């Protein structure tokens, strides 16, 4: 299937991580010019090298999501290097594992700025151009915790859920401008984030990481963690032209993990 992304410019946040890197590489294979945003410049360099080695076009830039004032300059740099952003993939890092109670308000505020306000501000920066061109794709990656809250990930559960309401509202506002806005929920995908969470759980419960991972995969109907490429394939479809009638949706990529309808 031709996703119609040749010549389009895509900005992928968190592009140095497992999910973001897979998404960026997949969009590049589809012909998109990809801007790679992440705070980890060494990881960005590796992803950029991979894309270029495969014949793609990529531009890497340090992107600190806590620096709201720097968003305009970052986007201007992308526009100068690759052209205006047609596809925005909002993929932010996760906060530390915490229970819901007893957290410092400063941690809540910092996490809200990095995980929510940054996404909203960045989207607002690229939306006028998308509207003018009558074409755009906004894909926001959240977590399965917005449907089934994950124990000890209270900040993530709460703040990522706010993005679901924002995206649904935005989708109705921009639909007639040829712009779609969708949420993608990763289940347990084999990334450094999942390995970190498994290690933390093992530490709390006095078990081995292998025991925790086996218990975790045992609860997934397909019997394994997902691969980053499987997640990236869904995001790439939502970023492309064939998904033009899919908007305001929440798409699960979880191997059947979430039991609810």
Automatic annotation (TrEMBL):
InterPro entries: NAD(P)-bd_dom_sf, SDR, SDR_fam. It comes from the Bacteria. Belongs to the short-chain dehydrogenases/reductases (SDR) family. This is SDR family oxidoreductase. It comes from Xanthobacter tagetidis.
């Amino acid at each position: 299937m031709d996703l119609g992304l040749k010549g389009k410019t895509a900005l992928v946040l968190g592009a140095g991580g497992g999910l973001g890197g897979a998404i960026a590489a997949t969009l590049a294979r589809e012909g998109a010019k990809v801007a790679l945003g992440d705070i980890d410049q060494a990881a960005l360099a590796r992803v950029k090298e991979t894309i270029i080695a495969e014949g793609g076009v990529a531009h890497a830039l340090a992107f600190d999501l806590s620096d709201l004032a720097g968003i305009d300059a970052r986007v201007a740099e992308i526009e100068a290097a690759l052209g205006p952003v047609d596809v925005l993939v909002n993929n932010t890092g996760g906060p530390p594992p915490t229970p819901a109670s007893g957290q410092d308000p400063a941690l809540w505020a910092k996490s809200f700025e990095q995980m929510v306000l940054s996404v909203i501000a960045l989207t607002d920066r690229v939306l006028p151009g998308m509207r003018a061109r009558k074409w755009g794709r906004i894909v926001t990656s959240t977590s399965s915790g917005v449907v089934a809250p994950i124990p000890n990930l209270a900040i993530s559960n709460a703040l990522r859920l706010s993005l679901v309401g924002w995206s649904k509202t935005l989708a109705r506002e921009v639909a007639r401008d040829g712009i779609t806005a969708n949420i993608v929920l990763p289940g347990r995908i084999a990334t450094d984030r999942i390995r970190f969470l498994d290690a933390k759980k093992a530490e709390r419960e006095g078990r081995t990481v292998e025991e925790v991972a086996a218990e975790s995969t045992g609860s997934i109907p397909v019997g394994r963690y997902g691969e980053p490429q499987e997640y990236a394939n869904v995001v790439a479809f939502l970023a492309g032209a064939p998904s033009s009638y899919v908007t305001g949706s929440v798409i699960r990529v979880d191997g059947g993990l979430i039991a609810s309808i």
